[in-house]
Structure of Putative ABC transport system ATP-binding protein:
Amino acid sequence: MSAPLLTATGVHKNYGNTPALRGVDFSISAGEIVAVTGPSGCGKSTLLHCLAGILPTDAGEVRYRDQDIGLWSEAARSRLRRADFGVLFQFGQLVPELTAAENVALPLLLAGSGRREAREAALGWLDKFGVADLADKRPAAMSGGQQQRCAVARALVTEPQVVFADEPTGALDQLNGEQVLGAMVQVVREQGTAVVLVTHEAAIAAYADREIVLRDGAIDPSGLGVAP
């Protein structure tokens, strides 16, 4: 396997006096899908947010292409998330006032693309996920599965190197969840995109190349959710 694209070493994160992460190490290579699993409250989402540069670490470091992003300004980390990183949340978080095409085009517009170019790209990505017919519909007119397909298209429209997916199917029923994730996995496999996939569902984790299990903010070496 190639050298890791993104690594975390000895990452600690506290919320007040409560430790959320206790010395977590992590790595992912280009084109790899890694599932992060574990019981509720074990630190899965906190780890994802630290890896994506959304949250600063209290100790340890996160390196992207061997650069310590913890030393970067918030503005630089925001640019990284607009260009090289894509983020996908459980409830999609589409902008309710915007149409599907406008939601998907938004990252491109923020990066400086022209409106026509951004819309054409958005339409292409909506088509990849089977919702091109919803291009001019707002989220309120879509089902949950349709909204999440649009959210996946938005996360991938910039063709990021790494996608961070935080419980991306958690708001969907099993059938819709597996359809959405299956479509996403097919596209990221074709493009060689790395995916950090946070989930508590074994069926969703099964899409990954490998799995790490967190327990009480630390990696469980047994992989069984038993405290280390």
